[in-house]
Amino acid sequence: MKEFMFIFRFTNLENAWRNPKMDYKMWQDWIGGIAAQNKLSGTGEQLDFNGNVVKSNNVVTNGPYAEIKETLGGYMFVKAESLAEATEMAKGCPIIQTGAGSVEVRPVTDTGNNG
């Protein structure tokens, strides 16, 4: 099995985690279903909407930027046989079900640096 990362992107920063249609039980049920199939590879976390961005020449700015269309809200890792299978799993995400944003599905590349 291969490892994939789900990156949760919200289209409305102000209501991202406070969307009345999306509660934590939806997340628990969706993630629990993946874990029950033994396909949850690593726990993900919700990201805070505050932070800094470090750029070249050590320039530090406040971020993420609220004026952008999408904001990263969290991530998790899953195991699947293919990108297609991982994408099918992502379709059950509460972000998709409530129209709050999108899920980016990315294969994790094994660089051979395992220790």
Structure at a glance:
The protein is built from 3 helices and 6 strands.
What would the keywords be for this entry?
115 residues, alpha+beta, Alpha-Beta Plaits, 4-stranded antiparallel sheet, 6 strands, 23% helix
Characterization of this structure:
It contains 3 helices and 6 strands, in the order βαββββααβ. By secondary structure, the protein is an alpha+beta fold. The protein has a single domain, classed as Dimeric alpha+beta barrel (Alpha-Beta Plaits, 2-Layer Sandwich). It is globular, with a radius of gyration of 16 Å.
Q: Overall pLDDT, averaged?
A: 82
Largest sheet: spatial strand order: 2-5-1-6
What is the rounded distance between the termini?
A: 20 Å
Would you tell me which CATH topology applies? Alpha-Beta Plaits
